[in-house]
Backbone:
């Protein structure tokens, strides 16, 4: 019997494990077709909600936040790049890479739901940041991404120049924090099964198969 799973993904566009996790679960879903399908909705999580508009040097930020040395940082970047390449996503880390505030990106993602283009926009934002080395807090760069996925840029500009969807995004963040979510990505399946992290494709196949079996029972 075919099943369509409801998958809510809590993530940030500046989280490399979020795109790795998505690529993994997406590949797993393709392997399980046509028995398993999914309706995916993205939800906001800010890794650095207090980050100023100009951002911060990535290496310095990770050192301050996690105590990572430059060697640790380089090793992690190589691992992430390899994982991404294996899943078809190109990471292009730069020596002078920066961490940025992502709240405006989350407001646009909330807006994109009504057009059924949330995943397209999310993937384009991951590409802007991790592949192109862009700034997901920069209005003009965000508008270029919006146009790229076929969303109305004039409407997006009005959103970015106002506080529209600020209350909704803040409420959504509070909701998931209240559920105990403190790391991303977090995948919530059918409102009751929670999976965290950039799991391997094989692990997602196993998890999704177990869930569909339980739901069918």
Residues:
């Amino acid at each position: 019997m075919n099943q369509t799973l409801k998958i809510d993904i809590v993530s940030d566009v500046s989280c490399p494990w979020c795109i790795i996790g998505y690529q993994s679960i997406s590949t797993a879903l393709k392997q399980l077709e046509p028995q398993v399908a999914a309706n995916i909705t993205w939800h906001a999580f800010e890794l650095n909600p207090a980050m100023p508009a100009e951002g911060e040097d990535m290496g310095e930020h990770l050192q301050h936040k996690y105590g990572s040395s430059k060697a640790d940082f380089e090793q992690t970047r190589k691992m992430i790049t390899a994982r991404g390449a294996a899943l078809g996503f190109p990471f292009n880390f730069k020596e002078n890479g920066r961490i940025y505030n992502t709240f405006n990106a989350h407001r646009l993602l909330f807006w994109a739901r009504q057009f059924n283009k949330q995943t397209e926009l999310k993937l384009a934002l991951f590409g802007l940041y991790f592949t192109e080395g862009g700034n997901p807090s920069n209005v003009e760069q965000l508008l270029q991404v919006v146009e790229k996925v076929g969303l109305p840029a004039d409407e997006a500009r009005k959103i970015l120049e106002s506080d529209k969807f600020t209350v909704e995004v803040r409420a959504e963040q509070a909701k998931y924090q209240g559920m105990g979510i403190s790391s991303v990505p977090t995948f919530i399946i059918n409102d009751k099964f929670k999976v965290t992290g950039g799991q391997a494709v094989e692990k997602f196949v196993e998890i999704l198969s177990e869930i569909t079996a339980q739901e069918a029972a």
Remarks:
- The two ends are 11 Å apart (CA to CA).
- The first helix runs from residue 16 to 32.
